[in-house]
Amino acid sequence: MRAATTNEKRLFTRDLFSVEEKFPSFGTYFKIYDALTSPQYSTVQIYPSALTSHDDIRRLALELRVNPQSTREEFKNKIFNPPSTDLETIIEQERGINVAVQLMLMIDCSDKDRHYEGYEVGGFRPVSWDSSERFADFVRKVFPARIHDQNKVQTALKEKNALKCWKLRKRAHIKFLPTDNLAEHLLYDPRDNTVRLFRQTAFLKAHLRLSANQPIELGITESLKM
């Protein structure tokens, strides 16, 4: 697949994030976009055609946003209809879904498959989107709701201005690593004393704008449709 044109990238920010005017700030995001849509995802012809154009990628992401209650298998059968029996084609179709999810939410829905069984970092275990699992349930699995001690929350809010990266680096010798996987944000690895920081700030700001007028109790399913 050829590299995306500036206009195709503008359309992507318009349709997925409603921030076409903020396109210049998405330089870091489109580095990931270009990497994910490089030839390794498109050299094999998919039947029926998918990921042969940047419009196809955008279509996959938008369709997924409209149908967050679909299982992975249901989504694949709807998008790639009729289903293929060719192994290489099936692999490419699965990769196409992974790309759409990552560009839509900046999470890797095949993360578990990339690590050995039992892999864990600081209490974090990567997960993948299973074939019989609804997309909304997969997102809940990635970002589980946690009930926090309100006293600790209030204390943290009061002291947040005292927590500086340079202090952690100088006093605790913590190293900071950039990540493009939102599920890894603030992940601390005690083995090498590192903290991962999600670096896609334009992506985060875009979602904050989209949700600015939404109630705080809005559920996962409704949030994914925005």
What key attributes describe this structure?
226 residues, mainly alpha, 2 domains, three-stranded mixed beta sheet, 5% strand
Q: Secondary-structure blueprint of this entry?
A:
Layout (H helix, E strand, L loop, with lengths): L5 H12 L9 H10 L17 H13 L5 H8 L7 H19 L29 H8 L7 H10 L5 H7 L3 E5 L8 E2 L4 E5 L2 H11 L8 H5 L2
Parallel strand pairs: 1-3
Antiparallel strand pairs: 2-3
Number of strands: 3
Instruction: State the major sheet.
Output: 3 strands, mixed
- Low-pLDDT segments: 41-49
The gross shape turns out to be globular
Give the N-to-C terminal Cα separation.
29 Å
Helix content: 40-55%
Based on CA atoms alone, the radius of gyration comes out at 19 Å
Strands of the largest sheet, in order across it? Answer: 1-3-2
Portion in strands? 5-15%
Number of alpha- plus pi-helical segments: 10
Average pLDDT works out at: 85
